[in-house]
Amino acid sequence: MTGVFTVMTRVIQTAAVLEELFGPVAAPSLQKEVATLHPVYQRWTAASPFAVLATSGPAGLDASPRGDPASLVHIQDERTLLLPERRGNNRTDSLRNILHCPQVGLLFFVPGVNETLRVAGRARILVGAELVQRFAVAGQPPKCVLEITVDTAFFQCGRAILRSGLWAGAERVDVPSAGEMLQAITAGQVNALQYDAELPQRQQSTLY
Q1: How far is 25 from 28, CA to CA, in rounded Å?
Q2: Which superkingdom is the protein from (predicted)?
Q3: Does residue 106 contact residue 54 with C-beta atoms inside 8 Å?
Q4: DSSP 202
Q5: Which of 202, 122, 110, 119 has the alpha carbon at shortest distance from 161?
Q6: Is the predicted pLDDT of residue 208 greater than 80, yes or no?
Q7: Distances (CA, A) of 202 to 94, 127, 197, 207
Q8: Domain edges within the chain
Q9: 51 CB neighbour count, 10 Å cutoff
Q10: Helical residues (DSSP H) of 48-189, grouped into ranges
Q11: Sign of torsion over alpha carbons 73, 94, 163, 205
Q12: C-alpha distances in angstroms, 90 versus 47, 83, 85, 138?
């Protein structure tokens, strides 16, 4: 495939060149990242029926879907999420990776909402009759439960969803808006109404 590239193509190999290519990070993009599952993020996560779980192991990286009627995860506290592991194809790729490397990433989706929520942390695989029974659906408990300790959490802007048209025509679930999340996380430094009013035009003008 290398033959399709011209002599003008180059590979970026340093963070400095990458930063020069993309420019500075806007303040809200830094402010929205916190070390716990902020209450406004808890409201958002509680409305999510679907997430992608990313893990890594000896065979490489893995990303696989997780879904349940909302709330997909149980919020134990601001640092702890419980994610039931339902029946599947029994490959257990994610679980095997966690045994090797506990670091995980989660990307939460809410139907009709352009923003997503990114959570990074460390996972343990828990079993126990009383624990799994808490997450039984239609009388079927999960095989085990992932206990995820949150290291960082922040919401991802909606440009990717807008570009894909993923939720075109879908009804939006009532969750905090981008501005409301930023206002809560920054203790009022960001004005929710102003941010949300300006966001659609800003996103449209910077989609590509």
Answers
A1: 8
A2: Bacteria
A3: yes
A4: H
A5: 110
A6: no
A7: 37, 47, 10, 9
A8: 29-205
A9: 24
A10: 93-100, 129-133, 159-164, 178-185
A11: positive
A12: 28, 17, 11, 20
Instruction: Give the sign of the dihedral formed by CA 117, CA 49, CA 97, CA 121.
Output: positive
Q: For residue 16, give both structure tokens.
A: 């400095």
Q: Is the pTM of this model over 0.85?
A: yes
The strand ranges marked E within the chain are: 50-57, 60-67, 74-77, 80-85, 103-109, 116-126, 144-156
Check whether the bond before 48 is cis (ω within 30° of 0): no
* Residue of 91, 13, 83, 105 whose CA lies nearest to 59: 91
CATH superfamily of 29-205: Electron Transport, Fmn-binding Protein; Chain A (2.30.110.10)
Residue with tokens 């990286």: 61
Q: What tokens does 70 get?
A: 């909302």
Tell me how far apart the alpha carbons of residues 63 and 107 are, in angstroms, rounded to a whole number.
Answer: 10
Tokens representing 129 are 């009759």
Here the tokens at position 96 are 């095997």
Q: What is the pLDDT of residues 30-83, one digit of tens each?
A: 999 999 999 999 999 999 999 999 999 998 999 999 999 989 999 999 999 999
